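Risk register update: the risk of archive-format incompatibility is retired. Evidence:
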Amino acid sequence: MKIQQNFTVQYNYDIHFTQHLFREDNPLFRTVIAAQRQTRVAFVIDSGVVDHHPDLIAQLTNYIYNADLLELAAIPLVVPGGEKVKNDLQYYDQTLALINDAKIDRHAYLVAIGGGALLDMVGFAAAVGHRGIRHIRIPTTVLSQNDSGVGVKNGVNFFGKKNFIGAFSPPQSVINDTIFLTTLDPRDWRAGVAEAIKVALIKDAPFFDWLEAHATAINERDLNTMTDLVYECAKWHCDHISGGNDPFERGSARPLDFGHWAAHKLEQLTRFEIRHGEAVAIGIALDVVYATKVGLLNQTDCDRILAVIASYGFDLFHEALLSEDGENVNSALLSGIEEFREHLGGELCITLINKIGHGLEVHEMNLNQIEAAVLTLQTNYHSHAH
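Archived output:
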């Protein structure tokens, strides 16, 4: 005897682009919620955003107050951004307490305003509060607007591992207000470009050409150029989530994690002193040199890719890649390969490239060639390192 259960759940959400979201004459936020009855809204905000936009809380409070059928359910909760908000569970607990105390039920909205780490944490709290409440993401960094904030992943760090606990939970909506990008420090402005380079290398050679041609404009902080970069990268990210027919990663392939097996480990090894995007840039450089050493990629493409990454001001090497004596590859870095396999489950599946714009999966890595790739980066790019 058996009962066969089968159902399909359709997910739809839009990624909006705007400026000055909470200005009184901007209808977008009201339109996104489209309240048909009195609707409670609560906010969790990155403290770095509040520091750089000191009028934000007053502005959004006024906006909600003057919006028909919207009600501010509580004073906005302000918590630190960056990996701290994912490493220390007190902020996750505070967010759950907000959901409880402000009576944010399944007909209300929890809104996260901040960088990718804060969006990850708040999204996870939203996924488990009442078994899932509506959350809206308002990403404030390049990295979160073009990559992490537009996807379906949420989580916090646990057991010293990135995103060990989390949930796949699509947002109700994502709103990219590009004005938030204007106050980023140079490192955060640049860090998100690494994900654009990544997606171009595995999916879109003309986009890589564009990134090569527009490095100066991006480095000079031209907002229109950066907005184009964010839009293009976010579009590819969405295409991957819906087009691969595996949005919740039931399989082993994770092409969007190109360069990430080393990046995640590097973040831990530096105690998150380097930004995620900075680690991804080094991870991409490492995997590109590795792909060249094992005969997948030609040297001309390799040199061109490394030059483009460097043109955005990224370091291509970090001392943490090496053991303490500086002679060998850090064994903890190599353990990142096994952690990567474990996180996916099943067989190892790492994305490399065999030409610009074309990713492919490999199921094993040659540790001697990884070591050779690290030493190549040390020899040729050590002068750029920290």
